[in-house]
Amino acid sequence: MNTVIQKLKNDHRRFARLIRRMEWELDRCHHGEGLDTDAMAAFVDYCSRHADEHHHPLEDRLFQRMLDRDPGLRGTIEQLNAEHVELDEATRTLHQLLEAIRADNHVSRDEFLGALARYLFLYHGHMDVEESELFRRADSLLWESDWQALERWLAEQPPSPFEDASSHDYQRIERLMTSF
């Protein structure tokens, strides 16, 4: 597997770990237990920042090259791009609700749990489509020159603090993900 797909799949594995942790928090809330708002806010921040700054720009470039090779993928890629917008909106909503809760403002339990459940549902479905319909097709569809161009672009990007094991952001997320 080439480095571009490997990086995207590694990102998805990390997102999936965060989602499992958030699902654990959701389950606790459904059973009347308290919510770790600091951890949840950190997870939402990670998903938002890393996706917006690193993951989605790489996917956008990959998907455009795939579309150039197979115009029949237009519907799937347009669906995924629309889901990126929907995920951004769900992320903003969840972030705002978490900030309100952390500021001791009233947020209805049902509103928060509904927003969290929607966010988790969207993330699961979105990653499933990317992995099952596009990532697996990329190797057979793209040429070596496509991969080289994507790898050059990737090498020119600043590193994500969430991928540097020595960074505070990375260590905090790792600690929070393993604290349940």
TrEMBL record:
Hemerythrin-like domain: residues covered: 4-137
InterPro entries listed in its UniProt record: Hemerythrin-like
Domain of life: Bacteria
Protein name (record): Hemerythrin domain-containing protein
